Amino acid sequence: MGAQDTGLNAHGQMSPAGNLVLVPAPAPVSGGQISGAPGNAEQDLEEDAPLSQDAIKRYEHLIWVQVAYFRVCLDPTVATSGRLVQQAMQDLKNHCACDALVAHYENNPAEADTTVIRQQSTHSAGSSQVQQHYRARGFNNVIPSVNQQETVAPVMSPTLSLMDIKGKVAASCADRKWSRFVQQAIEVATPEEVVMVYKEIMPCVRTLAVDMFGNHAIQKILEHGPKSCKREIISNLIGHMLPLSHDKYSCRVIQKAFDVGEHNQKVVMAKELSSKVLKCVRDQFANHVIQKCIECLPPKDIHFILQSFCGRAKALSIHPYGCHVIQKVLTRYKDQEIYHTLTAEIMENVNKLSADKFGNYVVQQLVEHGGHSMRSTMVRNFAGRVVSMSYHKFASNVVEKSLTFGSQEDRRLIADEIVGAGGGQHFDHLVDMMINPYANFVIQKMVVTAEEQQVALLLDVASSNATSLARYPHGRHVIDSMEKFLSGAKGGVHADPARCRR
Fold first, then answer.
1. Lower Cβ count inside 10 Å, N or C end of the chain?
2. Is 163 left (phi over 0), alpha (psi -120 to 50) or beta?
């Protein structure tokens, strides 16, 4: 009967089931020594108090040792079985001893030194040899992951430096805890340490850039490293801008490269994106890289990027990522020709964009920063639609922004249309607006921006219908806003209404 069709039952006997049956684990260990008979482990577990996390980890390790032992016994071709099992047992002793040291240093942090780190490294190295052997033989299911083993946080030791991980910097950058250590250490590193780190990460800088933890280390090195290191790292990224920009993690590295890189390198990086600008703009991650290009380079160096937006301002404004890029252009290049081209396209579709989930933010950008002439033109375009816009979830934001930043004439036009919607004979529509989830915010904004006569009318309507308004949450918000306004007015200032925004 071959090794593949035999197994062991709970008593350590061969079983034809073809699967390995786990034997009960020994009793908990103490001081690195194994005690208790295997057959009594289950009874001990039932009678003892709940196990601590450390005890559970030791049981897991012992079960692994037993399974590995029986696997070796079933495979006569393994010549080093005895040595491997002995090594596994020694690993357990090292693990227990390391746990004891860690517990001691956690209680006495002033005594912490690199001893714990070095013992942990020795333990991990021994375990990796056993793991590599069994993985080579296809026993992945019985080998615990290295990530499952308790590691000592590098910040425990105030004496640990980057030189202590020389030869392992790249691997450390890709580890959760050690990446944090590298980031902290690089801020206060000596020139020799920076050069050592730089040399070790250069062969795998792009691999680290797309790593969950490694990207943070690369960003920190770009931020604090000397110019020569920054130049070389960015040179390694050039030629791979498109895939790196579309990646969740490396797009952050590319943005940092635009922040700290030399001008000629920024231009080269931007030109790499020229063939896929619109694809990048519509991408969840790459759109941030395009925004960084706009932020860090003058228009003459990224004309090809800006030119690709012409004729597409409306489509990009209603895109969840494109709207951010358009806003960045409108903010950055206010006096440039591209600004006038894009704003003309937006103004042609201002009513549709105002009611769009994303486009309304582009319109708000123009209302706030577009200048008096453009703002007045938009308000005139809203004529006859102000009340319906006030009831709309997104368009109401544009009406509020127009009341906030518009001229006195703009505010009067908006307020007159809202107040006069009832024909000047009744004002029930104002009460309805006050209890509406969106229009109530327009009323609150009118209280602090409209002319005195219009404000007095709103206050009178609210006072006459206070009982009805108090039944609705948004009506109560309006009442509270008016009370704050009145108390502020008595003190000589206008109080901004409370914002319980949707």
1. N
2. alpha
Give the span between the Cα atoms of 474 and 437, in whole angstroms. Answer: 6
Residue count of the chain: 502
- DSSP letter assigned to residue 499: -
Check whether 473 has a pLDDT greater than 60: yes
Please list the residues that pair with 33 across neighbouring strands: 30
Contact 280, 289 (CB under 8 A): yes
* Predicted confidence (pLDDT) at residue 403 exceeds the cutoff of 80: yes
- Angstrom CA distances, 3 to 66, 78, 80, 138, 174, stand at 17, 12, 17, 14, 39
Residue 172: Cβ within 10 Å count:
25
User: Can you give the pLDDT at residue 161?
Assistant: 86
Instruction: Name the burial class of residue 189, with classes exposed (0-12), middle (13-18) and buried (19+) by CB atoms within 10 angstroms of its CB.
Output: buried
pLDDT in tens, 297-325: 998 999 999 999 999 999 999 999 999 99
Distance CA 25, CA 61 (A): 10
From CA 288, how far away is CA 174, in angstroms rounded?
24
* Residue the block writes with tokens 């090794």: 3
pLDDT of residue 20: 37
Using pLDDT thresholds of 50, 70 and 90, give the confidence band for residue 487. confident
Q: Is 465 helix (H, G, I), strand (E, B) or coil?
A: coil
Q: What is the pTM of this model?
A: 0.66
One-letter amino acid identity for 472?
Answer: Y
Q: Are strands 7-8 and 14-15 parallel, antiparallel or unpaired?
A: antiparallel
CA angle (49, 55, 61) in 5-degree steps: 140
Give the span between the Cα atoms of 469 and 462, in whole angstroms.
8
95-119 per-position pLDDT tens digit:
554 444 444 444 554 444 433 333 3
Which amino acid, one-letter code, is at 249? Y
pLDDT number for residue 23: 40
* Structural tokens at position 329: 């252009």
% helix / strand / coil in the chain, to the nearest 5? Answer: 70, 0, 30
